[in-house]
């Protein structure tokens, strides 16, 4: 009874949710009003959840059922399509057989048939007639296990009919007919083996076209039909003869960078046929494309004048005797290592034995160095050049930034050295530097920005300049004795890498508005690391100066404005009173600070107890100005000379003008005397210290500072006078 009520409640709930006018918000509102408590809502929620799971299961079941029906329908369509292909093939063969019978033989055939019938009647037997010419037609595809060359009729029609037959026998290869002039050369059954463990994988059928190789797999349930598996252009296909190693025999390998496949023929004869016809077809394709390129590149000249030999009016007596052709010197190419050279190169490339491949090429070039180039040698060189192209592509891939960048610059030495031996020095240099640029960029990006700025800059400089130093040393090893243009390329690359470093450096130091002292320490660290490159003869200091000059100018200007604003603010609150430091410790600390600023005679400005006979404004100005000068000198290089000098003059003028204004306006004799004492400290102590420290840091005196001090020198006047001249 309860189960029946539950089922009826579930069906009622389903009908309610499936109704067209169902609104979720209204339903929940009504449910909340009608429920007695939380328990009813939980039960209702469980019923809805169970209904949702049931609906999901039904949906999955329906999808699966429809999917099975779709698969069965697709299979039936495939069977019907195959039968239609077979029917079309039979009709095509019958039509071509009928068209191949010469019309001139029809009367003779009729007469022969009549004679045969008459003789048969005379013998009283009425025996069987002649053999039906159509019954003698043999199918194009061999029986399973065999191999055959193209046996179709000659001409383009036969070749197209052969390709049509291929289209009917192999599923999924309709796109083969898109290439004009394509035809089948050879085909046969093969067994594919796994390259690593030599385990049998599957039975396949190979179709060799005049420009590609098609591999198709057998369809066990449909005899004589195949499914398309792979298509390999002959340009990038290498054939390697696999030596017999019982029970593994009659095998050959196809190399298609970056993969390879191993196939086994039925016997040694079929294997030999496969190897021969593959090489012949590749050679014919290469020769055909070479001729097409020559014809396309050759200019169309005026028609040639007929030769003397074709002139019928030329006297035979006047013809010059033909010069016998000089027989070209023959080159011995019968040696075993030369015969197997293309296959050995393929094996070396497949096994990543780059050194062995280049050694074989050097050996061949040394052997053919002083020898002529008859057609066999040209043919051999064409084969070898194709392998050189493949080897170069593999080496280029080894140096691409997409490969792993671990191992440092030494990991690229193998590929770079072999490219240089192949005569690709410029390409090797370009790829090596591109690889190292990607490595440096990745290393900088992987640095975590944590802690103080100075700590990050230490890590950044260590990572970048260490990578740069290792790259320079590896470059010197790899490209020693090569063209000097490679070294120019390295210098250009180093400048580009330095720009990458400065971008990361400036973003962390200058864009984040760090203090001038922090910026000065960071620049100092970068300069010290940059000077380490001098050990290998690489000086990039001028580059880092040129790249940082704008950022440093901006930092100096910004800090100068901060000092000027602070000085003006103190000047506005100036009361011209002596400083009282309250404790001897504070006075001792101030003495040490002024001594570190270069003011050695500060003792004469201290009074009894903890008093200082100077204004707080002048003392603060002295400490701030000397601090700015010290930090700016850490950032100094010749391009910043005028920027630093003008900033100092602007800062000093603020204090000088304030003292001058106070002397002119103050009427109290005691305060005026105190102002004179501060002015004397400023002109006779602070400004000379600034001049001296600037000259020590820069290496030459600053005439602008001297002129400023001389122009601002106080002219002694009567202390009782209320006027002063500055």
Automatic annotation (TrEMBL):
Keyword entries, A-Z: Cell projection, Cytoplasm, Exocytosis, Protein transport, Transport
Biased composition (Gly residues): 121-130
Gene Ontology biological process terms in this record: endosome organization; exocytosis; extracellular matrix disassembly; Golgi to plasma membrane transport; protein transport
SUPFAM superfamilies (UniProt xref): Cullin repeat-like, PH domain-like
Family matches, as Gene3D superfamilies: Exo84p, C-terminal helical domain, Exo84p, N-terminal helical domain, Pleckstrin-homology domain (PH domain)/Phosphotyrosine-binding domain (PTB)
Compartments reported by the entry: Cell projection, Growth cone; Cytoplasm, Perinuclear region
Domain of life: Eukaryota
Pfam families linked: Exo84_C, VPS51_Exo84_N
Coiled-coil stretches noted in the UniProt entry, renumbered to this chain: none
Domain PH: 183-283
Residues in the signal sequence: none
Positions with biased composition (Acidic residues): 313-328
Region (Disordered): 118-160, 286-328
Molecular function (Gene Ontology), one example: phosphatidylinositol binding
GO cellular component terms listed in the entry, alphabetical order: exocyst; growth cone; late endosome; perinuclear region of cytoplasm
Subunit details: The exocyst complex is composed of EXOC1, EXOC2, EXOC3, EXOC4, EXOC5, EXOC6, EXOC7 and EXOC8. Interacts (via PH domain) with GTP-bound RALA and RALB. Interacts with SH3BP1; required for the localization of both SH3BP1 and the exocyst to the leading edge of migrating cells.
PANTHER family: EXOCYST COMPLEX COMPONENT 8
Protein task: Component of the exocyst complex involved in the docking of exocytic vesicles with fusion sites on the plasma membrane.
Family of the protein in this entry: Belongs to the EXO84 family.
Name under which the protein is recorded: Exocyst complex component 8
Organism: Prolemur simus (Greater bamboo lemur)
């Amino acid at each position: 009874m309860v189960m029946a009520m539950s089922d009826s409640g579930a069906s009622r709930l389903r009908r309610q949710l499936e109704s067209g006018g169902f609104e979720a918000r209204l339903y929940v509102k009504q449910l909340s009003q009608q429920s007695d408590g939380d328990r009813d809502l939980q039960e209702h929620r469980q019923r809805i959840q169970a209904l949702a799971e049931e609906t999901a299961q039904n949906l999955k079941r329906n999808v699966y059922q429809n999917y099975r029906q779709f698969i069965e329908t697709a299979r039936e369509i495939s069977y019907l399509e195959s039968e239609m292909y077979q029917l079309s093939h039979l009709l095509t063969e019958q039509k071509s057989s009928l068209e191949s019978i010469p019309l001139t033989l029809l009367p003779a055939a009729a007469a022969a048939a009549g004679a045969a019938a008459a003789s048969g009647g005379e013998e009283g037997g009425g025996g069987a007639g002649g053999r039906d010419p159509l019954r003698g037609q043999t199918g194009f595809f061999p029986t399973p296990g065999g191999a055959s060359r193209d046996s179709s009729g000659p001409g383009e029609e036969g070749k197209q009919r052969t390709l049509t037959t291929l289209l009917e026998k192999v599923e999924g290869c309709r796109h083969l007919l898109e290439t004009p002039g394509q035809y089948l050369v050879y085909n046969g059954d093969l067994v594919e083996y796994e390259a690593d463990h030599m385990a049998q994988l599957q039975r396949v059928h190979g179709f060799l076209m005049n420009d590609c190789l098609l591999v198709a797999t057998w369809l066990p349930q449909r005899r004589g039909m195949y499914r398309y598996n792979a298509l390999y252009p002959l340009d990038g296909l290498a054939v390697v003869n696999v030596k017999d190693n019982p029970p593994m025999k009659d095998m050959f390998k196809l190399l298609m960078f970056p993969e390879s496949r191993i196939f086994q023929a039925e016997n040694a004869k079929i294997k030999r046929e496969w190897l021969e016809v593959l090489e012949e077809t590749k050679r014919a394709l290469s020769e055909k494309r070479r001729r097409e390129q020559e014809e396309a590149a050759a200019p169309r000249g005026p028609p040639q004048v007929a030769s003397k030999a074709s002139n019928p009016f030329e006297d035979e007596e006047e013809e010059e005797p033909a010069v016998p052709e000089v027989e070209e010197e023959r080159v011995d190419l019968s040696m075993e290592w030369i015969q197997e050279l293309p296959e050995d190169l393929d094996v070396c490339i497949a096994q990543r034995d780059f050194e062995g491949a280049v050694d074989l090429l050097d050996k061949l070039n040394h052997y053919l160095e002083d020898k002529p180039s008859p057609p066999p040698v040209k043919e051999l060189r064409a084969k070898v050049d194709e392998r050189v192209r493949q080897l170069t592509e593999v080496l280029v891939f080894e140096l691409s930034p997409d490969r792993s960048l671990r191992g440092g610059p030494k990991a690229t030495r193998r590929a770079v050295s072999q490219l240089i031996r192949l005569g690709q020095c410029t390409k090797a240099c370009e790829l090596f530097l591109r690889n190292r640029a990607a490595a440096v960029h990745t290393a900088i990006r992987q640095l975590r920005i944590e802690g103080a700025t100075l700590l990050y800059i230490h890590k950044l400089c260590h990572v970048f300049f260490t990578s740069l130093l290792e790259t320079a040393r590896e470059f010197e090893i790899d490209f020693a004795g090569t063209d000097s243009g490679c070294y120019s390329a390295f210098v250009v690359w180093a400048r580009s890498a330095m720009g990458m470093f400065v971008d990361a450096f400036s973003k962390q130091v200058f864009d984040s508005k760090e203090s001038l002292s922090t910026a000065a320490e960071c620049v100092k660290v970068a300069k010290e690391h940059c000077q380490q490159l001098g050990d290998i003869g690489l000086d990039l200091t001028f580059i880092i100066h040129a790249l940082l000059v704008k950022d440093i100018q901006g930092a100096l200007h910004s800090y100068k404005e901060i000092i000027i604003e602070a000085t003006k603010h103190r000047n506005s609150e100036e009361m011209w009173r002596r400083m009282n430091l309250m404790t001897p410790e504070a006075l001792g600390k101030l003495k040490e600070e002024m001594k570190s600023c270069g003011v050695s005679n500060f003792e004469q400005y201290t009074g009894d107890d903890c008093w200082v006979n100077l204004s707080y404004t002048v003392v603060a100005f002295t400490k701030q100005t000397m601090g700015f000068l010290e930090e700016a000198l850490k950032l100094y290089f010749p391009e910043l000379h005028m920027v630093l000098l003008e900033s100092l003059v602007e800062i000093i003028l603020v204090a000088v003008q304030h003292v001058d204004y106070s002397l002119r306006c103050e009427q109290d004799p005691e305060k005026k005397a105190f102002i004179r004492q501060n002015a004397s400290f400023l002109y006779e102590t602070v400004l000379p210290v600034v001049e001296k420290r600037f000259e020590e840091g820069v290496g030459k005196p600053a005439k602008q500072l001297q002129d400023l001090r001389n122009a601002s020198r106080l002219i002694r006047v009567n202390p009782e006078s209320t006027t002063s001249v500055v």
